[in-house]
Amino acid sequence: MKQPEAAVGTITKAVLRRQALACRNALGDEARAGASNSIAERAGEILASLRPDSVSLYSPIGSECDTCSLIAKAVLIGAEIGLPTIVDGARILFRRYRPGDLLVAGKFGTKAPSERAPLMWPEVIVVPLVGFDRTGTRLGYGRGHYDRAINTMREAGQRPKLLGIAFSVQEVGTIPAEPHDVGLDWIVTEKGTLALAANED
Asked: What 3-state DSSP class applies to 54?
């Protein structure tokens, strides 16, 4: 179920989302590829320091940050890789993925492992962003998939670390946070790494 849009003044999440998407979509292929590589280097350093047994990444859609290099870095540190799959149109589950595995078409243009791939509970979730602010609040596509999945894991006693990746042009002003919104532990762009209070729990 889609969550209602909160607002600060007259700026709603929907407006901020459109602004961030427009900036992301305006990046040229060369700039996007270079920035994706820089993001992979920075995010890879975080994964190398954490040495998690399992990491969920994602197969990019549209103008999202490319994750191929970061997947390779996660494999090099020995982490089991997972990718999100959308079920029932509203829930995300994480299924094991090995580079070279066949991916199947999913909801909203996504690609995911087949239903035969084992489920997993990742220790680190690399989260795609539409937009972000300096408090660690993220904008997704407005469907709440990641928020629900992460809150479900927390209710089951799991505390995955959350690493958001985005291009620097996707930073927006203050995002109106709502009770269901999940804060990030890190935000990584091609220009730097923002370590947030959430990772001090």
From this structure: strand
Q: Concatenated DSSP letters for 94-122? A: EEEE-TT---EE-GGG-EE--TTSPB---
Give the angle subtended at the CA of 183 by the CAs of 53 and 105, to the nearest 5°. Answer: 60
CATH number of the domain that 39 lies in?
3.40.50.10420
Give the separation between CA 172 and CA 16, rounded to whole angstroms: 7
Whether 1 is in a domain gets the answer: no
Looking at residue 3, its pLDDT comes to 44
Query: Whole domain around residue 57: which residue ranges?
Result: 7-200
pTM for the model stands at 0.89
pLDDT value for 199: 47
pLDDT under 70: residue ranges of the chain: 1-10, 197-201
Neighbours of 13 (CB within 10 A): 25
Distance CA(110)–CA(40), nearest Å, equals 20
Angle (nearest 5°) at CA 74 between 94 and 78: 95
Q: How many domains does the chain have?
A: 1
